[in-house]
Design a protein that fits this description.
Length: 210
């Protein structure tokens, strides 16, 4: 009788542990899937607008630097300024929305309990990096509206760029280290690139502008 009771207790204990472990695996996977959806939203709605902004600046950088006063008053320069402001406003709107979604997720209980420490660190670096892009764009809007003087804006922009480059380096340096971390959970949380992401809308080009 005692053996039967002991076996029953062992069975129930293993059953409970199995259920708990199964729930843990489920939550690990579901959080990873949700994070993938958040990044896919970025690929589709945010990165194309950010890439458009940098592409526009890159194509016109030489002309602006060569003779900023003449270019800014020319028909081409006015068209560039208009396109840049429209593009910047659209980007700021989408980036702000994405950062809010990402921050809400990073503050969630599921994220805190089930996301491995190395992914938390990586996503935190990523969040800071994209917030840096937003800060630079908001500064451009303030300069354009006259809220900030041009020279003051240039000085601030230089500092913001330095911060962004530092955060980009932290993010990508840690991404390399992350690939070397051994953890059995990686097999569960590692997913394919979302269907809405591709080479063009996943990465932000490293372009320079005045």
């Amino acid at each position: 009788m005692k053996n039967k009771d002991t076996n029953k207790r062992i069975f129930l204990t293993l059953l409970v542990l199995g259920i708990i472990f199964g729930l843990y695996i489920y939550k690990l996977r579901s959080v990873a899937v949700y994070e993938d959806k958040i990044f896919e939203y970025r690929c589709i709605n945010v990165n194309p607008k950010l890439n458009y902004f940098y592409d526009l600046m890159y194509k016109n950088a030489a002309k602006i630097k060569e003779n900023p006063k003449i270019y800014s008053s020319s028909e081409e320069g006015l068209k560039f300024s208009e396109d840049m402001m429209i593009g910047t406003l659209e980007y700021v709107k989408e980036e702000t929305k994405w950062l809010e979604i990402q921050k809400k997720h990073m503050d969630s209980l599921d994220f805190k309990l089930f996301t491995p420490w190395y992914l938390k660190k990586s996503l935190n670096y990523q969040y800071k990096m994209y917030n840096d892009y937003l800060n630079e764009s908001n500064l451009i809007l303030k300069m354009n509206s006259g809220e900030i003087e041009i020279q003051e804006g240039k000085d601030q922009n230089k500092k913001l760029k330095e911060i962004r480059y530092q955060d980009i380096k932290l993010y990508y340096d840690f991404s390399i280290k992350l690939s070397e971390i051994k953890d059995w959970r990686k097999k569960i949380i590692t997913l394919h690139l979302p269907s809405g992401c591709n080479e063009e809308n996943t990465f932000i080009p490293d372009t320079q502008y005045p």
